[in-house]
Amino acid sequence: MRISELAKRAATPVTAVKYYQREGLLFEGIRTAPNQVEYGEAHVKRVRLIRALLETGGLSIAATKDVIRALDAPGAPLAETFSVASSALATPRAAEVRASEASRERVKSIAHSLGWGFTGDNPGIEGAARALEGLDAIDFDAPGEYLRDYAAAAALAATADVRALTALSDPDKIAELMVVGTVLGDPLFAGLRRIAQEDATHQLFPVDTNRDRS
């Protein structure tokens, strides 16, 4: 297929496809003539993946390159590809300041209390610690019960992620789901949380439908 058909199949503007190529995110097609290049289904899938990482996952071009590179590396250990995906999500913006050691220690303390095994450089520690400091900035000192409930929800989501991996047998597919699932699992979790928050609000703060609205 020509680039116009590729763009149509991937629901992506031709200009965006060409941009992905210039940035090295999309591998080259097969040149069949000096001014003609053919693309295949693998290109359609890759363009859709790139869009998902950039637009839904919110990754930068540089972070997306790291993820793509990890996926394309032959025989890369799964732990390494997972580390790349986690690091890509946790890359701080220039204006962000590293969380205090006290906040980081509180996050690690919660994780240790639940018996989680993790490394000290897990990027989730920094992300959670910055979130705690954001809550503290509005004078909300997150109580232990609050954090344990969040951790319990995170554990359920993590178990779902790993269980999905065990259903696959192809190493390449496992690596792909591990990386992409890590990136897109965040907006999936956030979206479902928003819906659940609305439901919980209705449950805890019911609206009196019989109230006189005049």
Please give a quick description of this structure:
A two-stranded antiparallel ribbon has the order 1-2. Helix 3 (41-56) packs parallel to helix 9.
Please tell me about this protein's structure.
- There is one protein chain.
- A hairpin with a 2-residue loop joins strand 1 and strand 2 (about 35-40).
- This protein has a two-stranded antiparallel sheet with strand order 1-2.
- Helix 8 (about 145-165) runs antiparallel to helix 9.
- The protein folds into 2 domains: about 1-55, Multidrug-efflux Transporter Regulator, Chain: A, Domain 2 (Orthogonal Bundle), CATH 1.10.1660.10; about 75-200, no CATH class.
- The N and C termini lie far apart (about 65 Å).
- Helices cover about 65% and strands about 5% of the residues.
- It is globular and about 65 Å long.
- The protein is mostly helical.
Salient structural properties:
single chain; 214 residues; mainly alpha; Multidrug-efflux Transporter Regulator, Chain: A, Domain 2; 2 domains; two-stranded antiparallel ribbon; 3% strand; globular
Q: What topology does this entry show?
A:
Blueprint: H1 3-9, H2 14-22, E1 30-33, E2 36-38, H3 41-56, H4 61-72, H5 78-90, H6 101-113, H7 123-137, H8 144-166, H9 171-204
Antiparallel strand pairs: 1-2
Helix pairs in contact: 3-9, 4-5, 5-7, 5-9, 6-7, 8-9
